[in-house]
């Protein structure tokens, strides 16, 4: 069974690969978030904001939070579309609500943790659909595998698009962050509107490798090629590789110049997709689908 500790009143489940080389910690009560990931030589790979353990903290905490039922910002839309159910519009917080709600522990093993989130009166008030979302985290000699399965538990079609929001730890600014680079193979990049709530065009992707401190990184959104793989390389030769299944074909990148982190986020669709017919994922009643992400260590 997974080892369970208490941190600031929260249950923290620790899972490890059979050889003990990779370890992860998950906090079901804090949105099913991965709070720690060590892949090689005990090296911590995740950044946590100062308010990570504060239950009233409403922003993205760091770590690896799951995103559902949307990725990115979604503001009230005055134009009818998937964002409306009948005549009723609904408004969701940035990245949805899954990362702000407690998840149920379904199964806890030494190398894996299985969580579940279902709809409630609270969720239906802002997202009027019946759903079941399952998260399966497992650690193997390959690294951390994050699997997300969504099922429409209602009797009407359910639009959604899920994702993950990894905060990878980098050296501090001025002490190695600028020399930390990432690579991605993409078909195109997207251009945002001013509020970053929708895409308004596309262009060829930038040239890689690119420094994670490059000002063009913050807000970069890519449509990935068939490899669906990115890699971060650190000045000491250590690397983090992230590979996603086809459902997570988009990557959003986020960084702040004064903070030691770099976000490489696998998404199912761009922001605003709920407002554009045909852009979001849509599950028929009873239908389910599964996507996964693998985060592994890579040496130069």
Structure in words:
The structure is a single chain. The protein has 300 residues and is an all-beta fold. 2% of the residues lie in helices and 43% in strands. Strands 8-9-10-11-25-21-20-15-18 form a 9-stranded antiparallel beta sheet, with no helix packed on it. A 6-stranded antiparallel beta sheet has the order 14-23-22-19-16-17, with no helix packed on it. Strand 10 and strand 11 (144-152) form a beta hairpin. The radius of gyration is 19 Å and the shape is globular. The two termini are 35 Å apart. The model is unreliable at 78-82 (pLDDT under 50).
**Order of strands across the biggest sheet?**
8-9-10-11-25-21-20-15-18
N- to C-terminal separation?
35 Å
- Which structural class is indicated by helix and strand composition? mainly beta
Task: Report the principal-axis shape.
Answer: globular
Give a summary of the structure in a few sentences.
With 300 residues, this protein is mostly beta strands. It contains 1 helix and 25 strands.
Give a topology summary.
Blueprint: E1 3-7, E2 10-16, E3 23-27, E4 33-38, E5 66-67, E6 84-85, E7 88-89, E8 104-108, E9 112-118, H1 121-126, E10 131-139, E11 144-152, E12 158-160, E13 163-164, E14 167-169, E15 181-184, E16 186-192, E17 199-203, E18 210-211, E19 221-224, E20 229-233, E21 238-244, E22 250-254, E23 261-267, E24 281-283, E25 288-299
Antiparallel strand pairs: 1-2, 2-3, 3-4, 5-13, 6-7, 8-9, 9-10, 10-11, 11-25, 12-24, 14-23, 15-18, 15-20, 16-17, 16-19, 19-22, 20-21, 21-25, 22-23
């Amino acid at each position: 069974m997974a080892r369970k500790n208490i941190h600031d009143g929260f249950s923290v489940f620790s899972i490890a690969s059979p050889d003990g080389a990779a370890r992860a910690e998950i906090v079901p009560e804090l949105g099913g978030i991965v709070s720690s990931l060590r892949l090689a030589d005990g090296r911590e790979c995740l950044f946590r904001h100062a308010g990570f353990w504060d239950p009233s903290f409403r922003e993205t905490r760091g770590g690896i939070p799951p995103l559902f039922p949307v990725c990115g910002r979604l503001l009230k839309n005055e134009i009818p579309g998937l964002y409306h159910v009948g005549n009723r519009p609904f408004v969701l917080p940035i990245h949805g609500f899954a990362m702000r709600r407690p998840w149920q522990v379904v199964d806890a093993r030494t190398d894996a943790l299985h969580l579940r989130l279902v709809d409630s009166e609270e969720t239906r008030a802002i997202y009027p659909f019946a759903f079941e979302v399952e998260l399966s985290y497992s650690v193997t000699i390959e690294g951390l595998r994050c699997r997300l399965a969504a099922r429409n538990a209602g009797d009407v079609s359910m639009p959604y698009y899920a994702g993950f929001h990894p905060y990878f730890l980098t050296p501090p600014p001025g002490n190695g962050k600028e020399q930390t680079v990432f690579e991605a193979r993409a078909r195109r990049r997207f251009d945002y509107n001013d509020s970053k709530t929708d895409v308004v065009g596309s262009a060829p992707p930038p040239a890689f490798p690119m420094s994670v401190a490059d000002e063009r990184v913050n807000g970069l959104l890519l449509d990935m090629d068939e490899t669906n793989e990115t890699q971060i390389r650190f000045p000491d030769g250590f690397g983090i590789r992230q590979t996603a299944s086809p459902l997570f074909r988009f990557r959003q990148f986020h960084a702040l110049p004064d903070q030691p982190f770099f976000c490489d986020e696998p998404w199912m669709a761009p922001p605003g997709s709920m407002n554009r017919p045909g852009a979001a994922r849509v599950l028929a009643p009873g239908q389910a689908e599964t996507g996964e992400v693998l985060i592994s260590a890579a040496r130069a």
